[in-house]
Design a protein that fits this description.
There is one protein chain. The protein contains six helices and 19 strands. It has 285 residues and is of the alpha+beta class. The protein has three domains: 71 residues, Uridine Diphospho-n-acetylenolpyruvylglucosamine Reductase, domain 2 (2-Layer Sandwich); 110 residues, Uridine Diphospho-n-acetylenolpyruvylglucosamine Reductase, domain 3 (2-Layer Sandwich); 82 residues, Alpha-Beta Complex (Uridine Diphospho-n-acetylenolpyruvylglucosamine Reductase, domain 1), CATH 3.90.78.10. Strands 6-7-13-11-12 form a five-stranded antiparallel sheet. Strands 1-2-5-3 form a four-stranded mixed sheet, with no helix packed on it. α2 packs antiparallel against α4. It starts with a strand and ends with a strand.
């Protein structure tokens, strides 16, 4: 197992903000994850899980406890017919590419997302009116005791950008059932989704992805745009002029800058529309 003290975390996040990890681990097997979690529970030590670093805002301080990132050793995935089994650190981008090659449908929505399977399941990620829950069969988790348990989708109570994780355990593996379709149809859907993201989202900028969940029947980005908040800044943190539900790091944005900007947006939307925006962004502090 790779272990580092005072690991700098900002480069591991897509927005480029973060402090240091008092203890940083990259486990190389599920059994090592079990040992880590079990020991942390016995020592009453906090555990923070890093996936692909998207949808995360990390405090600029020395994080106590243990920061765990699933790297290359827990990123394997394989196919058996229309079934996909993937470890938590598996790249969504690589899975999308392989699904296209095999003519398997179910992950087209993920085209262009810098995420991992574990993080995607933990937040029930999705787009284009679909989500990862639509194809999920089960997840394998490591509980606080260090024991492994398999949980079926029907027992997870997944909803829009919501799941019982991390309280229900640390996801280490998941299985999905996909739909066999014409290879070119799958590839065209992936190209279309990727093209739409490039046209509408600031993919070339440092950001954490969507900041707020869409309120029922509404678009968070459209509400923020209509309130005239595109381009609003706090320090080097700015509401994207391309998509109003993204906060971009213009070069030297700080944790506090992003938090202030979030609160300004929430305040304006509450005053304008009497809607309380809920964070999709996960904050580690």
């Amino acid at each position: 197992m790779r272990q580092t003290e005072d690991k700098v975390l900002a480069p591991l996040t897509t927005i480029g903000i973060g402090g240091t990890a008092q203890r940083y681990y990259e486990p190389e097997s599920i059994s090592e994850v079990q040992n880590l979690i079990g020991q942390a529970t016995a020592l009453k030590s906090r555990v923070h899980i890093l996936g692909g670093g998207s949808n995360l805002l990390v405090q600029e301080k020395r994080l106590s406890g243990r920061v765990v990132k699933f790297g290359e050793h827990l990123s394997r995935f394989d196919f058996a017919g229309k079934h996909l089994r993937a470890q938590a650190g598996a790249s969504l981008a690589k899975i999308v590419t392989e699904c296209a090659r095999r003519g398997l449908s179910g992950f087209e929505w993920a085209a262009g997302l810098p995420a991992t399977i574990g993080g995607a399941v933990a937040m029930n990620a999705g787009a284009f009116e679909t989500s990862i829950a639509d194809v999920l069969d089960w997840v394998r988790v490591v509980e606080k005791s260090g024991d492994c348990r398999k949980i079926s989708r029907r027992d997870l109570q997944l909803s829009y950008r919501s799941s019982p994780f991390p309280e229900a355990g640390v996801i280490v593996e998941a299985q999905f059932t996909l739909e066999v379709r014409n290879t070119e149809v799958v590839r065209e859907n992936i190209r279309k989704n990727h093209r739409l993201r490039r046209q509408t989202q600031p993919l070339s900028e440092k950001s954490a992805g969507s900041v707020f969940k869409n309120p029922p029947g509404e678009s968070a980005g459209a509400l923020i745009d209509a309130a005239g908040l595109k381009g609003l800044r706090e320090g080097d943190a700015m509401i994207s002029k391309k998509h109003a539900n993204f906060i971009i790091n213009c070069g030297g944005a700080r944790f506090a800058d992003v938090l202030r900007l979030i609160e300004r947006v929430r305040h304006r939307i509450s005053n304008y529309y009497d809607i309380d925006l809920e964070l999709e962004l996960q904050i580690i502090k």
